[in-house]
Design a protein that fits this description.
The chain contains one helix and no strands. With 36 residues, the chain is an all-alpha fold. The model has no long low-confidence stretch (mean pLDDT 79). This is CG15611-like protein.
Amino acid sequence: IIEIARNEHAQRNTFSLPMDLVLGVGLAIWLIWQYL
């Protein structure tokens, strides 16, 4: 059970990495848009 949870967490990390990148870029663009 621990192995399955660990594998699922690893897959979730590899999937959440692009999501965090997209959110970071979106937040940066939004902040720049606010200052324009």
